[in-house]
Amino acid sequence: MGRRACGGGISLLREALADRGGMTWQEIRRLLESKGLPHDASFDFLVSLACYQSSGTRCSLNRGVLAGIGAYLMWGFFPIYFKSLQSVPALEIMFHRVVWSFLFLILVVLVRKEWLRLKREISRPRVVLLYTLAACLLAANWLVYIYGVNAGQVVETSLGYFINPLMSVALGVVFLRERLRPTQWLPIALAAAGVVYLTLELGKLPWIALALALTFGLYGLMKKVAPLGALHGLTLETGLLLLPGLLYLLALEQSGQSAFAHAGAGVTLLLGLAGVITSVPLLLFATAARSIPLYMVGILQYIAPTCQFLLGVFLYHEPFTQTQLIGFSLIWVALAIYTFEGLLVRRRAAALAAAP
Question: In angstroms, rounded to a whole number, what is the distance separating the alpha carbons of residues 181 and 322?
Answer without folding.
Answer: 33
